[in-house]
Amino acid sequence: FRPVRVAAPATTGIRMDVTEQDNGYVVHAEIPGAKREDIQVTIEGNQVTIGAEVKNGFAAKDGDQALRRERRYGSVYRSFTLPVELDEAASTARFENGVLELTLARKAAVAGRKLTIR
What we know:
By secondary structure, the protein is mainly β. It is 0% helix and 51% strand. A hairpin with a 2-residue loop joins strand 6 (86-96) and strand 7 (99-106).
């Protein structure tokens, strides 16, 4: 098993794409090996945190010796900040085929309040 040479180092965390839309943002995050129930998404203001527990389903039989292990397992997380506040109640999450899709809605701007001068 010779080491595979890679031109650029591979990212070991969660890889993602973020696109901006009129009403918010769409995030596609790759979390291979995770199950839906092992993923947590937290939104606090304009900060989004994605965390997951990735479990390796392979168990060696008695007497077997692993020659090489490249499949990852353990906890992974990624946190990022967006330029506007997000509406947690209007945001949605969907997980299919190892890809988490977040639809993050912008929080409605609060209109200014007129002060009465006494």
